[in-house]
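Bug report (template v2)

What were you trying to do?
Predict the complex of my protein with adenosine-5'-diphosphate.

What happened?
Run completed; filing so the output is reviewed.

Input:
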Amino acid sequence: MKKALVYVTVILLFFAGGLYFSTEKSIEPKVTKKVKFALGTIIEFTIKDEEDSTADKAINEAYAEILRIDSIFTDYSEQSEIGKLNLEKPAFDTLSSEVYSLFVKSRELWLKTNGAFDITLGELVTLWGFKIKDAELVKEIVLPDKKEILDAVNRTGMSKIYLQAPDKIYLNGMKGQFDLGAIAKGYAVDKACEVLEKMGIKNYLVNAGGDVRGTGSEWVTGVQHPRQKDKLAVIVNINGSAIATSGDYEQFFEKDGVRYHHILNPKTGFPANDLMSVTVIAPDLTTADALATGFFVMGYKEAIKLADSLENVECYIIDASGQEHQSKGFYKYIRS
Ligand code: ADP
Ligand code: MG
């Protein structure tokens, strides 16, 4: 009798198992989605094919990594490593290895973009009023004085700083302020992806306010149209790469019919005004984020020339007249 009961239990378990697997196969792949807030934007994590508990744990750790990076690179706090550097402005300093590495990467991209991407523009960004977190606080728009801008341009510039491996920075002549706003978001997402990968997650998407990195399947992502809020300019598929967009519509104000926005030309200190929007696809989001800003300043001809010369980098640009321009291989990513 006892033996028979064991057989029945085994058979039941076998069928239960079979049933379990067959239902599992017939349902859609499992998707876990979580929305968080960091880096002044909404961060959306999507994980496919994992149990909720595994996905939740991975997302929490990836999010913690983003917060950690923000606390190092933010220039809104005097306590962060960048905040301290801006406050104390020592003639030379020793950087943490993480900050040193991102400075080296920033310098590399500054060189590649012929000075268009520059992480030393903090003072100019403040002068233009784009360092105020709450736009509601701005009662009246006052344009900065031209002489003030010129003075700030002269105090600023990557050309004035010197980096010495493994961790030294010399900033004798650099009296401006570091602002990694155009690269830190991409870097934070890349590090969050590293955390996901280390935890064994293979199919995921991280979307930080339209700057996206995804892998494991074809992820569809839309690029916002720079003038029509509800319209997408282009829809792309990414799998194993990253996409970032910089535009003149994210932070801007208008005065006497002129649009002033937050992407500045380091050479003039004024907003770059040849383009409306630049989208870059690159293997990682650190590169895509920084190049989108740099390309915006360069204008479409130079930007496309540079994108075409870089391996695995593509761009899609809408110029100030609304005309579209693309690098040679961008079409491969467009969703057909
Ligand atoms: P968002 O942060 O809105 O995604 P970007 O990635 O283009 O947009 O970064 C813009 C920010 O980068 C600005 O708010 C400013 O802090 C900083 N910045 C502005 N101009 C430049 C530039 N030429 N090079 C590097 N950083 C810049
Ligand atoms: Mg950027």
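What did the reviewer find?
Residues 2-26 form the longest helix (25 residues). The longest strand covers residues 31-38.
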